[in-house]
Amino acid sequence: MTSPVAGITAEYNPLHVGHAGHIARARELCGARAVVAVLSSDFVQRGEPALLDKWTRAKMALACGCDLVLELPAVFSAHNAGVFSKAAVDTLAAAGVVTHISFGAENPERLTDNIIDILLNEPEPFKPLLKKHLASGLSFVEARARAADGLLPGAGALLAGSNNILALGYMMRIKEKKYPLRVLPLKREGGAYNSGELGGVASSAAIRAALARGEKESAFAQLPPPSRRILTEAMEEGRACAAHGRYWSVLRALLIRLEPEELARCAEISEGAEHRMIAAAREAKTFEEWTDACVSKRYPAGRVRRAALHALLALGHWTNRAAQRLGPPYIRPLAMNSAGRALLAEMKKTSRLPIVTTYGQAARVSRYAAEVARRELLACELWEGTIPNGSFGVEHKRKIIIC
User: Fold this and answer.
1) How far apart are CA 99 and CA 105, in angstroms?
2) In what order do the strands lie in the sheet with 5-10?
3) Membrane spanning segments where (predicted)?
4) What CA dihedral angle connects 165, 29, 33 and 338, to 10 degrees?
5) Residue 100 known to bind ligand
6) DSSP conformational letter for 49
7) Residue 19, annotated as binding a ligand
8) CATH class of the domain at 5-106+162-242+322-402
9) Domain with CATH 3.40.50.620 in the chain
């Protein structure tokens, strides 16, 4: 019988006490000999620069209970929940050593096969309902929730939870691909993913907001000691993106330079959104003000921010669709301890994807892999420009963190 290995998909932006508890609980539930985390790149699913670069967050993960940390490239990490969850599960499954996948959800007891089958197979009359709600101007997430509720009353409320949506995405991918992964859904405790409330077990969003307001002590109270130490060092070194002023300067310069037809060639930008994005850039004084000006029923804030990042990465429709169709082209380890090192040695025999450690190796896998690696490198360089003490070119010199 294969010894259990738990897989977790994470942003750890930053890694707080709830995350540390999840790692420990996942290990305990399946008796895992190791915990593997697939970690978002320097830009996260909300379409924003992460508070800390992926290497620093990988170090946090090791310090708080993970054994091996793998990269989720920016073309997948800064995308909608469907793309994000599929790529993360594909990476864990391709490793060939992960037996369980654990994730948080607002309502883990309601993540049943009924709702998974509706979303996966889109039976009648789901498709007509979805088309009707999309035609009314709703976002895809809201339209899908209402269509699902028409077939299974209560499904709409379930699909209103950010973590429920991701959890269902993981479970759908496992069922669709028939991956031999057992799921360990856990009740999410504390603030919701987007919650700004700083109390109890606060969300990463609330912690970041507190840091942006200068409430360092309140924010740090939500972090386990290793995270606190690592974040303190990063902030003292000027290597934390606590505000978006520098990022907005770069993005605004691009938006006011581009013609609408040029912007429309970038991934996830359509239906005339390019005109609104450019017009708002000429007026908005901050990234947040620009986002608010661009939001519509069809384009919620997350989609707006992700579209902007895709423009900065020069991610066109073709490459974006290829990424969604083909998934991750390689596995890249970021950090490991002794248990992770032993697991990586196993993966060299079991992995269904090439294991790479440098951008040069990734580029030699295939033309598509080279495109994914090129966007990842660009995302890291962009992130360096968002912090007080950015170091351009450093990403080329990065080596696996071994603790």
Assistant:
1) 20
2) 182-187, 100-105, 5-10, 34-40, 68-72, 333-336, 401-402
3) none
4) 60
5) no
6) B
7) yes
8) alpha beta
9) 5-106+162-242+322-402
